[in-house]
């Protein structure tokens, strides 16, 4: 199915301003500065802070104020990281240290080109109990990256508070910043921003909001707040602050690189949090989905149609309500009588894989309910009744993704009911945790109650409460499918993937799984299309390379009459534009719930040939283009896997050194920087996000060789 001419990776020279930088150093260079400690422990009254060299050019900091950590705390950081100096000092196992201080001593530690130094909060030298981080530049000078925020009169930058029963505490750690710093990453939100400076971001998951405390700074460092707790990220003028609402340990990592060298920061981050494996070749083709194909004969007919229209397709998707009961994790045999026959038929007709949706919810009519309740595989609540929600008249409880036995139970159902029958890819929908992943949405009460005014934080999991470990839930759900697929295919984590999952959420290091993240349930209007671009660029900054969207918007906007209606010309135009864009995303996936004038709701078409005869050739031409990009796609995914080098590349990644305008435009999130990006080394991409246009302004960034400058009009059609 693929045109198999292979482009070698080496042939893909990156077009980049960064190449002007002196190459970064590491331990293969003889002048690399090996870390001169295994760790330092500051004992400051009751409070303990442990600072250890971590990987290349990095430090890991852990802090607690009363009860020492057990060593079994949830962590999204590898210990040791995947790459680091051969010197074992940079590969700390656990809580090792060779130096103890009490705050009355000055201290400087160095790992590679990063220095950590104590300083006194009051500007005198009485107690040196704050830490500052510096980068050593090529000329030997030092640049301050950030320090624990310490004006003379301010709340302590390491602030702990016991707010509830037990020893779990809330922690708020503050770091200095300057008004000109730019912040990239932080997971995904729907806010049109690539630079998150000035934002306060709630660290609570919900549909289309995946806040994740990983960021890169324009000052040349990256930072990971390694906590599973719900909380907050604040990026102020003078202070950045990270809050965990309920935790037993504070844990963060910081790593430096020359200013503008974002590939190195991504390499360092991915060494700490996870390297993406390579996806199966087939998954780089056209992935087709809608809400929803309802039964076996309809799915086979769909495959027949792709075959008859001679349109290539690599995956067909079975959406929700394909089960008899939520939590069966099996197709309803009344609708899908012969699954292995169906998957073989689809394969014969199109070569395509099948993906099936699963929800984490279990209703009490499911055969699995009693077993799961008995074995402790269902999430409970502190108030008693379990993570109650209701869906279509049935009460449901969520399976507990944080429980390894529950993960295994889920997988054994999927294996038995889908995998051995030829459905080997899984869509983990509603994966966000809390209630059905809609933290504030009220599925149970009247529809005019749109959003709950209180947190749904009292869910109780194997690993803790929603408040203390809620950010783990979607990650552990991805892990459930990863563990299962790795077992079934007899492959090791990190190696090439044979099959994939698709998740609505994720967290620090989710890129280590054979799992794509999509941007959630979006509305089918132009404004939403435009917002997805910045969302994807933030995903890239966070380290998630396997990113995708519901092409053409998931659902209708009730205030826009044509939204999502396949028979309305304005929607057809949006559909075509959105689909063109997805050709240049890591995965090209079409999904949504469609309306129409000629069929009953929920059964409306969403296939390439159903948007008007005039549009079909355009739609098909982009699908075909996607397949001709196969060698290029494979090469950029291979780079991502080897070194963490981003696939979707916000312009700051390649041009902030060579083109000062890029830095300035990124600062205020100008549309050129939230809507344009490099897709790999060679393609500059910007989607058309307005109706009725035949030309589009594009900013051509300056490269070091001076080609390209300023704004030009490009003809688009
Ligand atoms: C170490 O540096 C060399 C170039 O100096 C580079 O080729 C290599 O990829 C680097 N390794 C790591 C792990 O960063
Ligand atoms: C710590 O460093 C400061 C600034 O360099 C210096 O003034 C002070 O004497 C040092 N204190 C100790 C205890 O060495
Ligand atoms: C580590 O190296 C730095 C930079 O050379 C030096 O300033 C510092 O004193 C050293 N610290 C230790 C504990 O050896
Ligand atoms: C710093 O510490 C040194 C040694 O303890 C002391 O002599 C000096 O007066 C201190 N300086 C200040 C500004 O406190
Ligand atoms: C399958 O679904 C299609 C579309 O909803 C419907 O027309 C058809 O009757 C269904 N067939 C069966 C066997 O349920
Ligand atoms: C499924 O279909 C295959 C091929 O037609 C047939 O051999 C098999 O018996 C069917 N299985 C069931 C359970 O109907
Ligand atoms: C609710 O479930 C019933 C089957 O129990 C199904 O027929 C119906 O389509 C569902 N309705 C919605 C809105 O999901
Ligand atoms: C898969 O898991 C089962 C236990 O559930 C185990 O017996 C088997 O060895 C595993 N297979 C691989 C390839 O890891
Ligand atoms: C953003 O900054 C650029 C470059 O400084 C400037 O041209 C543009 O007008 C600014 N846009 C906004 C909305 O402030
Ligand atoms: C430009 O950005 C703004 C938000 O800053 C957004 O509302 C608008 O849709 C964008 N325009 C285009 C053409 O994408
Ligand atoms: C597009 O342009 C046509 C003709 O100029 C006009 O009739 C139509 O309303 C426009 N559509 C939108 C969505 O602006
Ligand atoms: C941009 O480049 C073109 C072609 O190289 C050149 O003619 C033009 O003067 C340049 N414009 C600016 C503003 O540098």
UniProtKB/TrEMBL annotation:
A GO molecular function term, named singly, is: hydrolase activity, hydrolyzing O-glycosyl compounds
Keyword Hydrolase on entry = yes
Q: Where does the signal sequence lie?
A: 1-20
Q: Which Gene3D superfamilies match?
A: Glycosidases (3.20.20.80), glycosyl hydrolase (family 31) (2.60.40.1760), Golgi alpha-mannosidase II (2.60.40.1180)
SUPFAM superfamilies per the record?
(Trans)glycosidases (SSF51445), Galactose mutarotase-like (SSF74650), Glycosyl hydrolase domain (SSF51011)
Domain of life, source organism = Eukaryota
What positions does the domain Glycosyl hydrolase family 31 C-terminal occupy?
A: 644-702
Q: Supply the CDD domains for this chain.
A: GH31_N (cd14752)
Which GO terms of type biological process are on file? carbohydrate metabolic process
What range(s) does the Glycoside hydrolase family 31 TIM barrel domain occupy?
Answer: 277-633
Ranges in a coiled coil: none
Keywords in UniProt for this one? Answer: Glycosidase, Hydrolase, Signal
Pfam families on file: Glyco_hydro_31_2nd, Glyco_hydro_31_3rd
Q: Does the keyword Cell membrane apply?
A: no
- Which family does the similarity line name? Belongs to the glycosyl hydrolase 31 family.
The entry's protein name is Alpha-xylosidase A
The beginning of the lineage is:
Eukaryota, Fungi, Dikarya, Ascomycota, Pezizomycotina
């Amino acid at each position: 199915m693929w045109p198999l001419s292979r482009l070698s990776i080496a042939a893909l020279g990156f077009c980049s301003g960064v190449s002007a930088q002196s190459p970064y150093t590491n331990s293969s260079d003889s002048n690399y500065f090996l870390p001169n400690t295994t760790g330092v422990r500051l004992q400051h009254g009751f409070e303990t802070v442990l600072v250890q060299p971590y990987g290349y050019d990095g430090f890991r900091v852990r802090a607690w104020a009363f009860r020492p950590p057990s060593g079994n705390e949830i962590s999204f950081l590898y210990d040791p990281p995947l790459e680091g100096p051969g010197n074992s000092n940079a590969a700390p196992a656990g809580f090792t240290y060779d130096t103890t201080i009490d705050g009355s001593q000055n201290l400087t530690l160095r790992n590679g080109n990063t220095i950590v130094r104590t300083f006194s909060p009051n500007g005198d030298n009485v107690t040196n109990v704050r830490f500052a981080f510096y980068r050593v530049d090529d000329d030997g000078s030092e640049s301050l990256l950030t320090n624990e925020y310490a004006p003379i009169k301010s709340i302590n930058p390491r602030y702990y508070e016991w707010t509830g029963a037990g020893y779990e505490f809330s922690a708020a750690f503050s770091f200095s910043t300057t008004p000109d710093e730019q912040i990239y990453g932080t997971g995904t939100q729907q806010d049109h921003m690539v630079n998150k400076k000035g934002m306060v971001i709630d660290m609570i998951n919900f549909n289309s909001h995946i806040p994740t405390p990983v960021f890169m700074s324009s000052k040349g460092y990256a930072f990971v707040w390694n906590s599973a707790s719900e909380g907050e990220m604040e990026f102020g003028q003078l202070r950045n602050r990270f809050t965990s609402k309920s935790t037993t340990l504070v844990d963060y990592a910081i790593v430096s690189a020359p200013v503008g060298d974002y590939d190195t920061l991504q390499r360092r981050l991915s060494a700490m949090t996870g390297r993406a494996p390579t996806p199966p070749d087939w998954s780089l083709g056209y992935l087709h989905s809608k809400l929803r194909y309802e039964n076996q004969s309809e799915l086979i007919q769909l495959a027949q149609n792709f075959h008859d229209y001679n349109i290539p397709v690599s995956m067909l998707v079975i959406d929700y309500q394909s089960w008899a009961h939520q939590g069966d994790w099996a197709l309803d045999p009344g609708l899908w009588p012969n699954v292995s026959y169906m998957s073989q038929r689809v394969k014969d007709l199109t070569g395509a894989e099948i993906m099936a949706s699963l929800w984490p919810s279990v209703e009490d009519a499911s055969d699995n309910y009693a077993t799961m309740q008995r074995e402790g595989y269902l999430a409970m609540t502190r108030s008693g009744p379990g993570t109650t929600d209701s869906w279509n008249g049935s009460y449901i409880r969520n399976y507990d993704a944080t429980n390894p036995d529950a993960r295994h139970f889920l997988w054994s159902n999927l294996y038995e009911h889908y995998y051995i029958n030829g459905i080997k890819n899984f869509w983990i929908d509603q994966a966000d945790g809390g209630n059905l992943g809609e933290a504030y949405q009220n599925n149970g009460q009247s529809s005019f109650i749109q959003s709950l005014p209180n947190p749904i934080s009292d869910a109780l999991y194997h690993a803790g409460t929603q408040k203390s470990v809620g950010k783990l839930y979607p990650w552990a759900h991805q892990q459930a499918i990863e563990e299962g697929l790795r077992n079934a295919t007899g492959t090791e984590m990190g190696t090439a993937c044979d099959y994939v999952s698709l998740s609505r959420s994720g967290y620090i290091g989710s890129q280590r799984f054979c799992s794509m993240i999509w941007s959630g349930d979006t509305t089918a209007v132009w404004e939403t299309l435009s917002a997805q671009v910045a969302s994807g660029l933030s995903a890239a900054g966070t380290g998630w390379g396997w990113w995708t969207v519901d092409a053409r918007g998931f659902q209708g906007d009730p205030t826009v009459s044509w939204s999502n209606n396949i028979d309305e010309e304005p929607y057809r135009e949006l559909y075509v534009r959105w689909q063109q864009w997805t050709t240049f995303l890591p995965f090209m996936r079409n999904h949504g719930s469609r309306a129409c004038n000629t069929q009953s709701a929920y059964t409306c078409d969403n296939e390439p040939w159903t948007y008007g005869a005039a549009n079909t050739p355009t739609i098909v031409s982009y699908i075909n283009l996607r397949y001709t990009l196969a060698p290029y796609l494979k090469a950029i995914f291979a780079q991502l896997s080897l070194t963490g080098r981003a696939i979707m590349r916000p312009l700051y990644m390649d041009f902030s050194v060579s083109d000062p305008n890029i830095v300035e435009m990124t600062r205020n999130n100008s549309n050129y920087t939230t809507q344009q990006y490099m897709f790999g080394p060679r393609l500059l991409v910007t989607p058309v996000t307005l109706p009725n246009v035949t030309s589009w302004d594009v900013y051509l960034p300056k490269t070091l060789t001076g080609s390209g400058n300023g704004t030009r009009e490009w003809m688009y059609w």
